[in-house]
User: Fold this.
Amino acid sequence: MIIIPDFFSGVVEGYTYLSNILLQSMPHATANIRNLPVLVADAVKSLGCAQGRIGIESGHQGGMSIPRPINDIDLFRSSLADAKFVAAADVIWRCRVIKSEAEVKSLKIATQAVVKAYGELVENFHIGMTEKDLSLAVRKSILDHTDDCVAPFIISSSRQIPMADVVASADVKLSAGDRVILEPLPTHKGYWGSCCRVLNVGPLSDEALRQDEYIDSLQEYAIGLVKPGVKTGDLMDAILERTRSDGELDYLLDMAGHGVGLNFQEPPAIAVGEESLIEEGMVLAIECWALDMQRSGAYCYAVEDYVVVTDSGCEVFPEFPKDIRCLPI
Assistant:
């Protein structure tokens, strides 16, 4: 059953295979908004589940929540006093982490939009652009190729204080020698694409080029380890061991990726101590970040690409060429 506001009647039928559709009348009236938990509870009862076991995503795997005020959740539970609520994250995420061909296609289209936007940025960049100028150019290009895009994640080493997930600033001008972290998040049919790159404004120093190439090789090593049956925690351990044996990057971020889909960050996490098994059909972001917070964005090296897990390894999604490392000046 699907429950919708009545003004979507006649529309929802085109977007769902379900025929059991329950309408919420006068959905903008406060009394009806507050009564929604009772409406949903009544629907559960009509399905014969008032005294059954009701599985919910209780949060232990994260990445998903019930977007209702806590009093709504309490009212829903109390309206089903004879039911038993049980944690069902394992069941729910088992359905979500294995992607269909159509889901993989949507993720690829969203990611391809990023790749195209980066190519256009490299062609059109000029000194004097601000973070906001660059952000708007990337977002406009992405919207030419897919459905939507949240404000691109733009950080320039011109900032006095390094910050993550901030709105691009019109006050931060890009100049020769800056490094710019790019991680826009476009969607296609609700599925989130990504392809993180760090581009240098002008030529790279020898040291920056060496670090860039090392991060790329580390990601390539990690991608080579992705196959069904590998624990995500073991994958992270292998990456860290590689950096230790190479004597490199003791400031590597303590995660190397995650699942993607209807959220831009979903289980499983590729991080220390994780027990999740990689399975065929998963789509994973494989990313390596080295950020020395004492030296700000000027000392950030990062790369991220998506892969879809196959029966014996993985297939890399469309990616922006790693040998293009600079914005022209």
About this structure: The domain at 98-327 is CATH 3.90.230.10 (Creatine Amidinohydrolase). The two ends are 57 Å apart (CA to CA). Residues 101-124 form the longest helix (24 residues).
